[in-house]
Specification:
heterodimer, A: mainly beta, 7-stranded mixed beta sheet, 4-stranded antiparallel beta sheet, 11 strands, B: about 110 residues, mainly beta, about 0% helix
Chain lengths: ~120, ~110
């Protein structure tokens, strides 16, 4: 069964850092372009960023709202994807989804709350 | 960045109604648009890819069309399970951008 499962969410103070993980099973992450998408409470979907597949040198793209603060990486040996979030702001509070938008594969999401 | 504007942002309808949601792009995105459905507490599910192609398993009451800057999603005869929020997303350029969503509520 194809599956993505996020972890690492929680409560963090403004200015702090958090690292989210996404474990894939049932398929090889290295073959896929992978995205992070977030959804603030009661709000719409916001694309956060993408890491392209191995054939595209794992290059990354980011939304303007997170560029320079967030970094997407992956560890193919672990079949895992990561989102390093630095300099967090209250407006980063959201459910964060790991997804393959191309394959329409989504994890259940992990909640990140940025608050003092 | 390409802005995606959906209309309406919310609407009320009844079972059996024909419903149309519109998505406008701030610049030409060719046919690089998808439609997602999200139900409360659930992850999004793609209904349409490349502007007009129905995903496998999606009921044929859903259809979509458009190219360039104007796109529509139509539900020909609303069913109870269709009450949800619908999002468009352009995948022509980075950064990818979603529309703000259209919440379809029961009248």
């Amino acid at each position: 069964e194809v599956q993505l499962v996020e972890s690492g969410g929680g409560l963090v103070q403004p200015g702090g850092s958090l690292r989210l993980s996404c474990a894939a099973s049932g398929f090889s992450l290295s073959d896929q372009h992978m995205d992070w998408v977030r959804q603030a409470p009661g709000k719409g979907l916001e694309w956060v960023g993408r890491t392209k597949n191995k054939a595209n040198s794992y290059s990354t793209e980011y939304a303007a709202s997170v560029r320079g603060r967030f970094t997407i990486s992956r560890e193919d040996s672990q079949n895992s994807l990561y989102l390093q979030m630095n300099s967090l702001k209250t407006e980063d509070t959201a459910v964060y989804y790991c997804a393959s938008l191309i394959g329409d594969i989504w994890g259940p999401g992990t909640m990140v709350t940025v608050s003092s | 960045d390409i802005q995606m504007t959906q209309s309406p942002s919310a609407m009320s309808a009844s079972v059996g109604d024909r419903v149309t949601v519109t998505c406008r792009a701030s610049q030409d995105i060719s046919h690089y648009l998808a439609w997602f459905q999200q139900k409360p507490g659930k992850v999004p599910k793609r209904l349409i890819y490349d502007a007009s192609n129905l995903e496998s398993g999606v009921p044929p009451r859903f259809s979509a069309s458009g190219s360039g800057t104007e796109f529509t999603l139509t539900i020909s005869s609303l069913q109870p399970e269709d009450f949800a929020t619908y999002y468009c997303i352009q995948h022509n350029t980075f950064p990818r951008t979603f529309g703000q969503g259209t919440k379809l509520e029961m009248k």
